[in-house]
UniProtKB/TrEMBL annotation:
Keyword Kinase found: no
Coiled coil: 3-72, 137-196, 558-592, 696-730
Organism of provenance: Neophocaena asiaeorientalis asiaeorientalis
Compartment(s): Early endosome
Bias (Low complexity) ranges: 95-104
Primary location: other
Encoding gene per record: PPP1R21
Keywords of the record: Coiled coil, Endosome, RNA-binding
Region (Disordered): 84-104, 753-780
GO cellular component, one term: early endosome
One Pfam family, short name: PPP1R21_C
Domain Protein phosphatase 1 regulatory subunit 21 N-terminal: start-end pairs: 11-112
GO function term, MF aspect, one: RNA binding
Descriptive protein name: Protein phosphatase 1 regulatory subunit 21
Length: 780
């Protein structure tokens, strides 16, 4: 096994190495191509620069030639201007000379026109060449920049690959050292295995002799003592009592007890959820204490009031199932008869859910149609309606699978044993689905409650009822999660325990055979107890007859008492339901009483403060009236009240003169506080300026250091490019050495495989020889 793992590991490493090698070659080709392209572009740039210089020289020569021609044209124009007056004076003397001058002028004009056209054409060519050169230069520069970027990226890839190659080389070297150590340990193990094989051969001989002697004894006992083999036919074998497995029964009872606790929590949560939902219908969207609720909600509330009669039997059915699993029974699906009653109770509860579902959906629609219902609240109500449908569907699915599990105890052909495992897994999936649905209900109902609490018409009763419903939904979610995880953790044990039954057969054939087996088990247990107990003295016949009459009378009275007990138990259950209902009502009434007490206390406080304010206002009115009379008598001006600090200083009381010293103290304190505030602001501004100056100074230093580091990095880049070329050469050499090492290691592994195969052959030969010796011993 170790050699096969090593071979697979080295094959994977060889494949990775070949892939990396191919990638390295491709990257090398790409780098070489980019270098060639950059060199070609540099050569093209040089050629363009040379052509540009040539054109500039030609342009300079042409401008110089144009200047010369312009000067010559000016001289010719001057000569023409001088020759014109002379021609006017000498018209009569020389017509021939004028004709010559006109011919020369026409020749000069043609020559000048040609030079001007040539100059214009050269200017156009030069401008076009200059524009083209600039365009080509810009393209070449952009292309050079992109090529430099690509070269840098390729260089970074090459650096990464070199690092990766070095790391792989180090890993392979470490693996080589580990494999050498492992090969040494394997050699030691091989030696130990040889010694163990010798010991095993000796033990095998001893065991073979012992088993052969036991087989002979058992065969002789079977032939002498067993007249009838009842395990040959499955119908007879199903009646045999299996070996009692007390550990299995205790485990099943423990699991049933845990399931009972979870079901009790679930029943409690369902009772609270339905009860608080009934209370919510009574107060929202219409409070029944103020106005009558709709007939739909009345009917829905009436149905919800009956929830305990459907939810309580679930707990009772699970309790009966738990009590049926005892230490003395055999717990399989064919013997769990009480599972059928639990399935029936679950069916009745699902009928209850189906009955209240349309009313619940219509109630949510009625809430959506209310005037204060917002769009967010309407969306939450729609989500809750979908969740309620999912909850009913999940319960139906769960009831279907539990009904299937209850079939083997009532109908023999209702469910095949091959389908037990699939049904149990589907039960676990249904429980997980129930947990998911309850999480969605908790999430959506919490959002709905927060939106309703923000409504202006939300009463404290509605808020407390919503909190109670949320707590019950959270309890249901936790209970569903616990029971789903509990079932998924124990589903493997359930599947394995289904085969617990008679040996050498497919198990219990039918519920009738299972019941017969349990009766035989009880009889066998009673017989064993009877063997241990001493026999009691016999009762005389006459005394037995008298006792029989007394027994019959006691049984009749016992039946009557049993009926009375049953009736009293039913009354007790009804009274407990009413007790829970009235306890919830008492809690709500207590909350209302506390709120009313608080409200009356607040009202008393407000009335007492209002009376005090009224008395103060009356006293102030009397004082102001007296002040006005005194003012009219003495003609003293009334001071004007102001809310500012200076205005406060001008107030007077009882028409007395203002206190000068107190006014000065107030002004002094005001200005001192203002001075302190201004000095603190000034200090803060000074500290900020010093901080900004230090930051600017530090940034300038960092800029200088960055420039220096830029230059150093440029130099390092040059050195790194040189090192890259050197490392590429070293990489080729290391690859070759690594290939040689791999070939050597593969040869070593092949040799190890050969030695291991030889050892296996030796062990096989030893086993064959031991078998031959055993056969010889048998023949002897």
């Amino acid at each position: 096994m170790a050699s096969a793992e090593l071979q697979g590991k080295y094959q994977k490493l060889a494949q990775e190495y070949s892939k990396l090698r191919a990638q390295n070659q491709v990257l090398k080709k790409g780098v070489v191509d980019e270098q060639a392209n950059s060199a070609a572009l540099k050569e093209q740039l040089k050629m363009k620069d040379q052509s540009l210089r040539k054109l500039q020289q030609e342009m300079d020569s042409l401008t110089f030639r144009n200047l010369q021609l312009a000067k010559r044209v000016e001289l010719l124009q001057d000569e023409l201007a001088l020759s014109e007056p002379r021609g006017k004076k000498n018209k009569k003397s020389g017509e021939s000379s004028s004709q010559l001058s006109q011919e020369q002028k026409s020749v000069f004009d043609e020559d000048l026109q040609k030079k001007i056209e040539e100059n214009e054409r050269l200017h156009i060519q030069f401008f076009e060449a200059d524009e083209q050169h600039k365009h080509v230069e810009a393209e070449l520069r952009s292309r050079l920049a992109t090529l430099e970027m690509e070269a840098a990226q390729h260089q970074a890839v090459v650096d990464g690959l070199t690092r990766k190659y070095m790391e792989t080389i180090e890993k392979l070297q470490n693996d080589k050292a580990k494999l050498e150590v492992k090969s040494q340990t394997l050699e030691k193990d091989a030696k130990e295995c040889r010694l163990r094989t010798e010991e095993c051969q000796l033990q095998l001989k001893n065991l073979h002799e012992d088993l052969s002697s036991r087989l002979e004894e058992s065969l002789s006992i079977i032939n002498e003592k067993v007249p009838f083999n009842d395990t040959k036919y499955s119908q007879y074998n199903a009646l045999n009592v299996p070996v009692h497995n007390r550990r299995h029964q205790l485990k099943m009872r423990d699991i049933a007890g845990q399931a009972l606790a979870f079901v009790q929590d679930l029943v409690k949560g369902l009772l609270n959820f339905h009860t608080y939902t009934e209370q919510r219908i009574q107060i929202f969207p219409v409070d029944s204490a103020i106005d009558t609720i709709s007939p739909l909600n009345q009917k829905f509330s009436q149905y919800l009031h009956e929830n305990a009669s459907y939810v309580r039997p679930l707990e009772e059915g699970m309790l009966h199932l738990f009590e049926s699993i005892t230490e003395d029974t055999v717990t399989v699906l064919e013997t769990t008869v009480k599972l059928k009653t639990f399935s029936e109770h679950l069916t009745s509860y699902i009928c209850f859910l189906r009955k209240i579902l349309p009313y619940q959906l219509k109630s949510l629609e009625e809430e959506c149609e209310a005037s204060l219902c917002t769009s967010a609240l309407r969306a939450r109500n729609l989500e809750l309606s979908q969740d309620m449908k999912k909850m009913t569907a999940v319960f139906e699915k769960l009831q279907t699978y539990i009904g299937l599990l209850a079939l083997p105890s009532t109908e023999p052909d209702g469910l095949l044993r091959t389908n037990y495992s699939s049904v149990l897994t589907n039960v676990g999936a249904a429980l997980h689905g129930f947990h998911d649905v309850m999480k969605d209900i908790s999430k959506h109902y919490s959002q709905k409650a927060t939106i309703e609490h923000e409504l202006p018409t939300a009463t404290q009763k509605l808020i407390t009822t919503n909190d109670c419903i949320l707590s019950s939904v959270v309890a249901l979610t936790n209970g569903a999660g616990k029971i789903a995880s509990f079932f998924s953790n124990n589903v493997d044990y359930f599947i394995a325990s289904l085969s617990y039954g008679p040996k050498t057969a497919s198990g219990f054939i039918s519920p009738l055979s299972a019941e017969c087996m349990l009766q035989y088990k009880k009889k066998a247990a009673a017989y064993m107890k009877a063997l241990r107990k001493p026999l009691l003295e016999s009762v005389p016949y006459e005394e037995a007859l008298a006792n029989r009459r007394v027994l019959l009378s006691s049984t009749e009275s016992r039946e009557g008492l049993a009926q009375q007990v049953q009736q009293s138990l039913e009354k007790i259950s009804k009274l407990e339901q009413e007790k829970e209902h009235w306890m919830l009502e008492a809690q709500l009434a207590k909350i209302k009483l506390e709120k009313e007490n608080q409200r009356t206390a607040d009202k008393l406080k407000s009335t007492s403060s209002g009376q005090a304010v009224g008395v103060a206002q009356e006293g102030a009115a009397v004082v102001t009236a007296a002040g006005q009379e005194d003012a009219s008598a003495k003609a003293v001006p009334v001071p004007v009240h102001s809310t500012s600090l200076i205005g406060i200083l001008t107030r007077t009381s009882d028409s007395k003169a203002p206190d000068v010293e107190s006014r000065e103290d107030l002004i002094r304190n005001h200005y001192m506080a203002r001075i302190v505030e201004l000095t603190s602001q000034l200090q803060l501004a000074d500290s900020k300026s010093v901080h900004f100056y230090a930051e600017c100074r530090a940034l300038s230093k960092r800029l200088a250091l960055a420039e220096k580091s830029k230059e150093a990095l440029a130099e390092e880049m040059k050195v790194a490019s040189q090192n890259n070329s050197r490392l590429q050469d070293e990489l080729t050499t290391t690859k070759r050495s690594y290939e040689d090492q791999l070939s050597m290691m593969s040869d070593h592994l092949c040799s190890m495989n050969e030695t291991l195969s030889k050892q296996r052959e030796e062990i096989d030969t030893l086993k064959m020889s031991s078998k031959g010796n055993s056969k010889k011993n048998k023949s002897r």
